[in-house]
Amino acid sequence: MSNDRKSDVISKEEILKKAKSLATPIDFDVLVAEGILEKKGLGYKILDMKRLPDHAKDKIIGISADGKVKFSKATKSAQKLVDKLSK
Predict the structure, then answer these.
(1) By CB distance 3.0 to 4.6 Å, which of 23, 39, 41, 71 could disulfide with 79?
(2) What is the pLDDT of residues 41-73, one digit of tens each?
(3) Which of 62, 67, 80, 78 shows the shortest CA–CA distance to 25?
(4) Structural domains counted in the chain
(5) Within a domain: residue 3?
(6) Assigned domain for 24 exists
(7) How are beta strands 43-46 and 60-63 bridged, if at all?
(8) What single DSSP character describes residue 60?
(9) Domain of 51?
């Protein structure tokens, strides 16, 4: 591997950080109560992107034309990866 490609390599720590983020469930009730999200049908509208936790940002899977955002759920496979990499 050339030195130019070293920046493209993801470290174990970076993978673990992303897996932890994907394994962390989003507490929608708290985010709505704090004025960060607003419930819109089956999705949510982000009212304050700066205050939206990183683990929630990592789970954004779609944005509709009217600004409604859909999130993925925390995954068991991400938690399994966290458990494996944490050993």
Answers:
(1) 23
(2) 888 999 999 999 999 999 999 998 888 999 998
(3) 78
(4) 1
(5) no
(6) yes
(7) unpaired
(8) E
(9) 11-85
